[in-house]
Amino acid sequence: MGKSNLELVKECDRFPYYQDDPAFYTAHLENYHVFKVSGCDAVLGYILNGVVEKFPWPAEFWAVDTTTRTVTLVTGADATPAQRSRLIAQTLAAAVEQGTFEILRGWRDELYPIYGPGGEFLLEMERSATPLFGVVSYGIHATCYVQDDQGLRIWVPRRSRTKQTYPGMLDNSVAGGMSSHERPFECLVREASEEASLPEAVTRASARAAGCVTYFYVRSSKAGGETDLLQPEVEYIYDVRVAADVVLQPGDSEVEQFHLLSVDETQAALARGEFKPNCAVVLIDFFIRHGILTAENELDFLEILARIHRRLEFPTASHATN
Amino acid sequence: MGKSNLELVKECDRFPYYQDDPAFYTAHLENYHVFKVSGCDAVLGYILNGVVEKFPWPAEFWAVDTTTRTVTLVTGADATPAQRSRLIAQTLAAAVEQGTFEILRGWRDELYPIYGPGGEFLLEMERSATPLFGVVSYGIHATCYVQDDQGLRIWVPRRSRTKQTYPGMLDNSVAGGMSSHERPFECLVREASEEASLPEAVTRASARAAGCVTYFYVRSSKAGGETDLLQPEVEYIYDVRVAADVVLQPGDSEVEQFHLLSVDETQAALARGEFKPNCAVVLIDFFIRHGILTAENELDFLEILARIHRRLEFPTASHATN
Questions:
Q1: Taking CB atoms and an 8 Å limit, are A295 and B212 in contact across chains?
Q2: How does strand A137-148 pair with strand A230-241?
Q3: What are the residue boundaries of the Nudix hydrolase domain, all occurrences included (chains A, B) (predicted)?
Q4: Which of A21, A186, A189, A305 to mutate to test the interface with B (most CBs of B within 10 A)?
């Protein structure tokens, strides 16, 4: 008996819900400080108390209040995103130098954006540091599939066994994080080319936006680095239907090999826990949208749909151009 | 300047969220009593205080506690769903006789099910009474569409101008409530035949399950009956792609006429507020799943997706057969 789809969802959407147990939720929040920037009321993320204690916070521009459990980046009222980002970078550089956090040894040299309550860009920070601050991160996940008289088959890559995070696990056909100033569709086109050798023209012609999944992940040991760090995420979802003669191939060292799996084979691998947690969620969403998982064959249909579209308690981005 | 898609979603998903303002949410709950049945800890719905005061609660089997704001249907520990349902029916019959509630003048003579925390069937009650108890109700909504070289067009019915609820508004191609013991797909087949004259064979061959939308509706005057009653809802979603020569026609008096609208025409009618609120939500979900509304062209993409998949704070059904 393998893992149920709801069990897979719960491995990804792990942060408690207020409604399930208000007293527990309120007590649980005491494990965290809230992360704010001056001039903005919104809570941007939750920082584990243990992280707050270890962080070398330069007192010139950080205010740590252990009574209200608030960590504030203090700047003038007219600070720009570039100014805030420089102060964050300076703080992180000191932490790296002192070797404070294991997770920062996976430095990516990619900047991730953080937004305010009106969707305004507030600052950017090194990707590997975002779970220390518990801020929302953004990415794209695409399911490339073939649908013909042999039925529906899905292109599934296995992650390189030497990758820092989730080594050797199965992944979505194309997936990647969105750096600052990147837009979802352009991120998809870039990642599809880099990771799956999918020509830009094929992606542009065949990819269809299909919503997003959102969840509140709590990092396990498989994620690498400190455990229990928070990672609320938004993944924009694409379906890419390709012809049977299109073959996905690793374009960089991140993927070991691609396999074309039937729905049954994919579901069996899911039940065995072979997929990276958020990739399992994306496949479950795909199966729901394609009428493979239904109210009649999935016991936990409603709970699954609500949890993979979680309304995060932090401000989120708008990537609209209009 | 018409209504934005988020404004349309908010007309349907109107109940406040704890996360937006914990103090306001907590204060808001004081407007309601919780509805319970003895032997089950779960809150099954919220009853407006004004409704609690007016309801003729027979003291033999109702306990109304104004301190904890709880209304409990009191039975022996081994009560069956049939026994609970009889007591509810008796209570409602008295309310109808005394003319206590305007909403019960729209008596439908259809029984709606209420489930416990393990998905177990607890009781059923007359459809028109469910908003008095604020319990979750279930339905199916289908979008019938044509997709060919003329583009995507959607079959949109206008509700009869003499209908009690939302007269003259635009609706989804097929929509209907699920009575007790009904399953989503069979409900779809029945409603498609009754309301849209779609032959059973066409529905069975062409309908594809595509998830569900959930939201927490607060009834307005257009819904008929008392305002501010609560109606948390689950709508199972189907896409039905039909050939261009299939013509949907009213099968009963509930629909005035069907129109085949382009995406632009449908979106214009949405912006004019012509659609029944939950039908607008179903179309927005359709547009997201079909890549028409995307992260790049919809400012409120993330908030919309989370709100139309709201995790309800009451137990919900499982309609799975396995």
A1: yes
A2: parallel
A3: 137-283
A4: A305
